[in-house]
Amino acid sequence: MTDPTAASSAGRAWYADGLHFQCTQCGNCCTGPPGTVWFTNEEAGRIAETLGIDTAEFYARYARKVDGRWSLTERKTTHGYDCIFLDRASAPGKALCSIYQARPAQCRTWPFWPENLRSRNSWETVKRVTPCPGMNTGNLVPIEQIGILRDATPR
Fold this sequence. Notes:
The chain is of the alpha+beta class. Helix content is about 30%, strand content about 20%. The longest helix has 11 residues, at about 40-50.
């Protein structure tokens, strides 16, 4: 059976020809209303190593429990609620992830989340509401890669 989040009315994924995406480092996907950034214990270890701290300190300083799962903490800013690792000060005009190489799967798979791929309308709505200037621009991401990213998105 075809994945219902990816199928068009003709049974073919609406994004079968791929989608263009290039991160612009705007930080819009890392801010907004209060939310969650899920991560695994393995990811916590990688982040802690990147930060040069032990895992227990990482959990104490940068994580919170939400509905029995671990999420990165946020801080209130003029933009909304920023991920604790979003750095707006280091590069003027950019919003950089200070743990980019160790960021959780939820971050690595943006914008190819199942809910964003449900339909072309969902994709365009997310592009407009987030807003994500990297969607529909830059490199073509083939459907095979989109499927890998979509399926790696934490639920």
